[in-house]
Design brief:
It contains 19 helices and 16 strands. By secondary structure, it is an alpha/beta fold. The strands form two sheets. An eight-stranded parallel beta sheet has the order 1-4-3-2-5-6-7-16, sandwiched between helices. Strands 10-9-8-11-12-15-14-13 form an eight-stranded mixed beta sheet, with helices on one face. The protein binds nicotinamide-adenine-dinucleotide and ligand 3DD. Nicotinamide-adenine-dinucleotide binds next to helix 9, helix 10 and helix 11.
């Protein structure tokens, strides 16, 4: 492990002298080359660098990132750096880091980065607190969050400082236990740290659906400690990244993990939202027969009218060869479901958290035995006498078993992230959840048209008048301030 520390930080105190902690700094050269190859594929990020690089609207802003440490995120980090930010970064999933991307960021010093593929949960929460804490002990002005774990850290820290008895409770959820153990440590050393950190935060921009659900829950309960921008619901994020990104990266993950032939197999996709639609299309594109499960009548109707059979999971257990959860819900696939599945059925999740598949059933059942085939590919022998193959320990399979979405679609998501960060840095906001204006969404889309050779049609004045819309002059992509 090449970093300027010498042991893996189980429940270790912060070491604020560390400038980074990555798996292997020697991978930096490969990371630089991969990042250079992403430039042409990320026209939105290149445009915001060109537009705002001189002005530096993020100058003086300390930004904490908790977002999968991939090559695409490295490009986001470099963009935020070019706009003047001072960055500290952790990943938001223990398996999603691309070590050469983290090495490149550490090598360049674009951010103080604490991330490596295969972190333990203790490592994960240590990295997150390292990303939230500057060498002088202060916290960030802004957060870029994906799933809300950095936002959760600050909120839970304030709760503990308001009611230290929370530290005396027993927590069965391993993630929460690790977080509370760390908060015990920080409370013992500085019982007002998280109040100070929360007070200074101008806002958070949240990347994903599940993270946004968490924000609206906090807002509804009047617990939101700082303003938030919901990046996920920019059309040029969720109708692109969640849909077309998963359409490519789901199959990538499954195939890198198992080399399975998809054609002719039965793929069961749980959830037909933006991600589920992409997953279903992906499996259909490879010639699989796709079954959908859904709770929502509108999404179920969409699936049926796309030609998919919509069934209950129970009806699909005997025929499914591959199961994918894409719901953002909890315990969608239970132990009882697994026990009914075909021998060596493949089970994976592409939702943000690892709670869609009931992994505790497997890890806590003495009759269930794990045989690791290779990292993130485990064959579990079940009570039924059959086995199933679990990918990435139930964590998101496209980033755990592959490299996530390609750069082009992440450029669209991350251009929204940068615009959200500029908005939070330069405009006053209330403690509520905002979305970006439609005009910006349209501009993000326009920035990506040339790369695909798109030629837009321009309305004549008569047509514009008929439609009651302004006459668009010859358009040149030019982002305006939020
Ligand atoms: P969404 O809300 O658009 O879709 C989820 C769908 O699942 C909804 O239609 C809902 O009705 C359905 N659903 C909920 N509970 C269900 C259940 N128990 N059984 C069957 N269907 C159920 O959300 P989304 O944008 O599609 O995101 C889904 C998840 O994927 C979220 O956790 C999100 O954060 C995550 N995500 C992952 C990636 C990735 O790259 N891995 C990318 C984007 C989003
Ligand atoms: N996500 C998928 N692929 C990614 C990549 N290559 N880099 C960073 C993040 C990536 C997850 C996103 O889709 C995130 O927006 C989400 O989970 O919604």
């Amino acid at each position: 492990m090449s970093y300027n520390g010498n042991t893996s930080p189980a429940l270790q105190p912060l070491d604020l002298s560390l400038k980074y902690k990555v798996a292997d700094l020697s991978l930096a050269e490969l990371g630089h080359k991969d990042m250079q190859l992403s430039e042409r594929e990320m026209p939105g990020l290149m445009a915001v660098r060109k537009k705002y690089g001189a002005e530096k609207p993020l100058k003086g802003m300390k930004i904490t990132g908790s977002l999968h440490m991939t090559i695409q995120t490295a490009m986001l980090i470099d963009t935020l750096k070019e706009l003047g930010a001072d960055l500290r970064w952790a990943t938001c999933n223990i398996f999603s880091t691309q070590d050469h991307a983290a090495a490149a960021i550490a090598d360049k010093g674009s951010a103080a980065v604490f991330a490596w593929k295969g972190e333990t949960l203790e490592d994960f929460w240590w990295c997150t607190e390292m990303a939230l804490t500057w060498p002088d002990g202060s916290g960030p002005d802004l957060i870029v969050d994906d799933g809300g774990d950095a936002t959760l850290y600050v909120h839970q820290g304030v709760k503990v400082e308001n009611d230290p008895s929370l530290l005396d409770k027993t927590y069965t959820n391993l993630d929460l236990k690790c977080l509370m153990d760390r908060l015990q440590l920080s409370y013992s050393r500085d019982p007002k740290k998280w109040h100070r950190v929360a007070k200074n935060i101008r806002g958070v921009s949240e990347e994903t659906t599940t993270g946004v659900h968490r924000l609206y829950h906090l807002e509804k309960n009047n617990e939101l400690l700082f303003p938030a921008i919901n990046v996920n619901d920019s059309v040029t994020k969720s109708k692109f990244d969640n849909l077309y990104g998963c359409r490519e990266s789901l199959a990538d993950g499954i195939k890198r993990a198992t080399d399975i032939m998809l054609s002719g197999k039965v793929a069961v996709v749980c959830g037909y939202g933006d991600v589920g639609k992409g997953c279903a299309a992906s499996m259909k594109g490879f010639g699989a027969r796709v079954l959908i499960t859904e709770i929502d009548p509108i999404c179920a109707l969409q699936a049926a009218m796309e030609g998919y059979q919509v069934v209950t999971l129970e009806e699909a257990l005997k025929t499914g060869d591959i199961f994918v959860t894409a719901t953002g819900c909890v315990k969608v696939i239970t132990g009882a479901h697994m026990e009914e599945m075909k021998d060596e059925a493949i089970v994976c999740n592409i939702g943000h958290f690892d709670n869609e598949i009931d992994m505790a059933y497997l890890t806590n059942s003495p009759d269930c035995k794990k045989l690791t085939i290779k990292p993130q590919v485990d064959k579990w022998a079940l009570k039924s006498g059959r086995s199933i193959v679990i990918l990435a320990e139930g964590r998101l399979v496209n980033l755990g078993c592959a490299t996530g979405h390609p750069s082009f679609v992440m450029s669209s998501s991350f251009t929204n992230q940068v615009l959200a960060q500029i908005a939070l840095a330069t405009e006053p906001h209330e403690k509520q959840v905002y979305t970006l204006p439609k005009k910006l969404d349209e501009e993000v889309a326009r920035l990506h048209l040339d790369r695909l050779g798109v030629k837009l049609t321009t309305l004549t004045p008569e047509q514009a008048d008929y439609l009651g819309v302004p006459v668009e002059g010859p358009f040149k992509p030019d982002l305006y301030r939020y």
